[in-house]
């Protein structure tokens, strides 16, 4: 339990820091952050606070989908946007191309690492991921259809509102899945511990799984 709590409390703020670095890089963002940025442009409210507010509103959509939030869901709403806002407040403006590329790469890697940490803690889905799984369970839509339809919608609306869509959006979409696939097994607290070679049964005594 201690390890799980530590992973959650490190992973969620780290996710916000990574998001902030990609925002500062200015190459384009993931769909939900594009949406939050577009709302921030129109309202004048900080993008981090908008991220928290959007997370809370998405959580309300769980009610008709009969989803139940976990501790991780609530922590996600409170910590990710707050970390974005705090990081952007202390991050100096970056204009040169090479530092911007570096910011984006570091941000993407931080988000992947953070995803492995907080997903691996097994404290419940984030509000946006829970929306996808709820649509799958309640409406019968495949997960990929649920995710694609929702993320394309928020991406389009966010872009129309003034959010940044660009090469970074494409790189994030292509790269985040493989990177989280690498990170998650390192931190998944549900994985069974491996037996040492000395403790493993000899071939002739091993049970046939069939």
Can you describe this structure?
- By secondary structure, the chain is mainly α.
- It has one domain (2-187).
- It is built from 9 helices and no strands.
- The protein has helices spanning 2-25, 31-43, 47-60, 62-65, 71-90, 97-120, 127-139, 143-161, 167-187.
- Helix 1 (2-25) runs antiparallel to helix 6 (97-120), helix 3 (47-60) packs parallel to helix 7 (127-139) and helix 7 (127-139) crosses helix 8 (143-161).
- The longest helix is centred in the N-terminal third of the chain and has 24 residues, at 2-25.
- It is globular and about 45 Å long.
- It starts with a helix and ends in a 23-residue tail after the last helix.
- Residues 192-210 have low confidence and may be disordered.
Strand content: under 5%
**Helix/strand order, N-terminal first:** HHHHHHHHH
Number of domains: 1
In round numbers, the mean pLDDT is 85
Q: Give the CA-CA distance, first to last residue.
A: 34 Å
The profile of the biggest β sheet is: none
Structural class: mainly alpha
Low-confidence parts? 192-210
Protein name: Membrane protein YczE
InterPro entries: YczE/YyaS-like
Keywords: Membrane, Transmembrane, Transmembrane helix
Organism: Microbacterium capsulatum
């Amino acid at each position: 339990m201690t390890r799980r709590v530590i992973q959650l409390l490190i992973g969620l703020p780290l996710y916000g820091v990574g998001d902030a670095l990609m925002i500062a890089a200015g190459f384009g963002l993931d769909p939900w952050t594009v949406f939050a940025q577009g709302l921030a442009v129109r309202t004048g409210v900080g993008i981090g606070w908008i991220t928290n507010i959007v997370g809370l509103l998405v959580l309300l959509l769980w009610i008709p989908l009969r989803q139940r939030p976990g501790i991780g869901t609530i922590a996600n709403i409170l910590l990710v946007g707050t970390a974005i806002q705090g990081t952007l407040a202390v991050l100096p403006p970056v204009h040169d191309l090479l530092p911007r590329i570096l910011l984006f790469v570091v941000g993407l890697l931080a988000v992947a690492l953070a995803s492995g940490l907080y997903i691996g803690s097994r404290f419940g889905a984030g509000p946006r991921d829970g929306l996808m799984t709820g649509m799958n369970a309640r409406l019968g839509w495949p997960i990929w259809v649920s995710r694609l339809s929702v993320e394309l919608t928020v991406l389009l609306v966010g872009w129309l509102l003034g959010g940044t869509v660009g090469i970074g959006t494409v790189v994030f979409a292509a790269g985040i899945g493989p990177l989280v696939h690498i990170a998650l097994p390192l931190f998944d607290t549900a994985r069974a511990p491996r037996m040492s070679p000395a403790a493993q049964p000899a071939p002739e005594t091993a049970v046939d799984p069939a």
